[in-house]
């Protein structure tokens, strides 16, 4: 069957863009590697396909699936999250334009905006996105074209009110871009809350198995879709067919994975909260998290990302990071296997010494889909190593 946009999330995830192959009836649409397409006479294209950069059926299947899940009218798939972000900004902003972004944005996003696009005349102001007055002041100061937010943010797990931020952005004539990588469309659909654009590193929860790098843009507006489609074609940072296929396969099980990630995140956060070694647990599912009520309103569940700060400072954080065995010490997040990250030296090393720097006593945990007891037992034995030196 094909899924229309009124079907439930999991039905859309499994079926959108996934029509069976008409000749053989193959239930899984075939993976198309061909770079070019036979023409029936000059310009006589079958189904519009001409050349692989411009269009590929496997990529189109993923794009249709992504649009259906985010509630957009069009989606565009790229070779990485940052390739998607670069194409998006080039489609919207021109030299002299300004981007207001969260002061704890993903380090690579800040590096792209500040160190690459900055040289092409695009300015930026990092602000605390959970402080809407500060955002309103920042957008009014420059020719702001884009307000860029991550919620929950990485790795500080701050929650921003997407609907309220959309109003602030629109009042200033700017577009609101939400990096929805941490929540995924299963937990949060920013377009429905008023955002103009959703971007993803599909490398994380959407791919979900730590085996494919990719990125995506999803939009509602047809004019904006046309501009982004042109950049995707003209710049060519597209995802390859194998990557698109793996991403589609991951996306089909997003809902069941996010349910488990969320259960495990909650269990780990609650365990951490009672530990004497812990200074703070940053997880929106905890009732005393400053963004808890807002997260409960705009998210379906609270996800699998948990950050923790240690009373024992950098030494304690490093000890735990290097002592786990079920949690693997590695960059990235959102896969079925649990990962442990020390942001200030790993994922966020590129913002060290800037105003986006991450506390040195902080670890970020990506809780996978293993059994929660095993995750907690692993942390328990690692915590024992703090006090034992
Ligand atoms: C990983 C990540 C990105 C960058 O995506 P890549 O696929 O690594 O290029 C952007 N935003 C967030 C929140 C991320 O976690």
UniProtKB/TrEMBL annotation:
**Its catalytic activity?**
O-succinyl-L-homoserine + L-cysteine = L,L-cystathionine + succinate + H(+)
Under SUPFAM superfamilies, the record lists:
PLP-dependent transferases (SSF53383)
Q: Which residues carry this modification: N6-(pyridoxal phosphate)lysine?
A: 204
Q: EC? A: 2.5.1.48
InterPro entries in the record: Cys/Met-Metab_PyrdxlP-dep_enz, Cys_met_metab_PP, PyrdxlP-dep_Trfase, PyrdxlP-dep_Trfase_major, PyrdxlP-dep_Trfase_small
Do you know which PROSITE patterns this protein is assigned to?
Answer: CYS_MET_METAB_PP
MF annotations from Gene Ontology: cystathionine gamma-lyase activity; cystathionine gamma-synthase activity; pyridoxal phosphate binding
What enzyme category does the UniProt record give? transferase
Name the UniProt key words of this record, in alphabetical order. Coiled coil, Pyridoxal phosphate, Transferase
Annotated GO biological processes are: cysteine biosynthetic process via cystathionine; transsulfuration
* Superkingdom of origin: Bacteria
Q: Which GO terms describe its cellular component?
A: cytoplasm
Cofactor(s) demanded: pyridoxal 5'-phosphate
- Coiled-coil annotation reads 362-389
NCBIfam families associated with the record = PRK07811.1
Q: Which family does it belong to?
A: Belongs to the trans-sulfuration enzymes family.
Tell me the protein's name: Cystathionine gamma-synthase
Q: Which organism is it from?
A: Paenarthrobacter ureafaciens
């Amino acid at each position: 069957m094909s899924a229309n946009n009124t079907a439930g999330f999991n039905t859309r995830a499994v079926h959108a863009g996934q029509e069976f192959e008409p000749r053989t009836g193959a239930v899984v649409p075939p993976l198309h590697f061909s770079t070019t397409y036979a023409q029936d006479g000059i310009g006589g294209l079958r189904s519009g396909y001409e050349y692989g950069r411009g269009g590929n059926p496997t990529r189109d299947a993923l794009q249709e699936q992504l649009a259906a899940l985010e509630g957009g009218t069009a989606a565009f798939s790229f070779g990485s999250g940052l390739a998607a972000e670069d194409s998006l900004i080039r489609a919207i902003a021109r030299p002299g334009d300004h981007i207001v972004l969260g002061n704890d944005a993903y380090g690579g996003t800040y590096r792209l905006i500040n160190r690459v696009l900055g040289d092409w005349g695009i300015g930026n102001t990092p602000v605390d996105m959970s402080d809407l007055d500060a955002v309103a002041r920042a957008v009014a100061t420059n020719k702001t074209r884009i307000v860029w937010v991550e919620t929950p943010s990485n790795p500080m797990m701050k929650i921003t009110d997407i609907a309220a931020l959309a109003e602030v952005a629109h009042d200033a004539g700017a577009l609101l871009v939400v990096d929805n990588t941490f929540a995924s469309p299963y937990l949060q659909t920013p377009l429905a809350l008023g955002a103009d654009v959703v971007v993803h590193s599909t490398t994380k929860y959407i791919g979900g198995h730590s085996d494919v790098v990719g990125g995506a843009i999803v939009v509602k507006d047809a004019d904006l879709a046309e501009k982004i489609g042109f950049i995707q074609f003209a710049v060519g940072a597209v995802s390859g067919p194998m990557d698109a296929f793996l991403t589609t396969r991951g996306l089909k099980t997003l809902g069941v994975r996010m349910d488990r990630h969320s259960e495990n995140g909650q269990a780990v956060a609650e365990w951490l909260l009672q530990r004497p070694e812990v200074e703070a647990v940053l997880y929106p599912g905890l009732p005393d998290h400053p963004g808890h009520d807002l997260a409960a309103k705009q998210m379906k569940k609270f996800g699998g990302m948990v950050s923790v700060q240690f009373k024992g400072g950098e030494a304690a954080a490093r000890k735990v990071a290097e002592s786990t065995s079920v949690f693997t010490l590695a960059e990235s997040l959102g896969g079925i296997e649990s990962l442990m990250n020390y942001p200030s030296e790993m994922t966020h090393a590129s913002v060290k010494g800037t105003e986006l720097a991450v506390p040195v006593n902080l670890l970020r945990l990506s809780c996978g889909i293993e059994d929660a007891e095993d995750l907690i037992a692993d942390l328990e034995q690692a915590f024992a190593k703090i006090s034992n030196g």
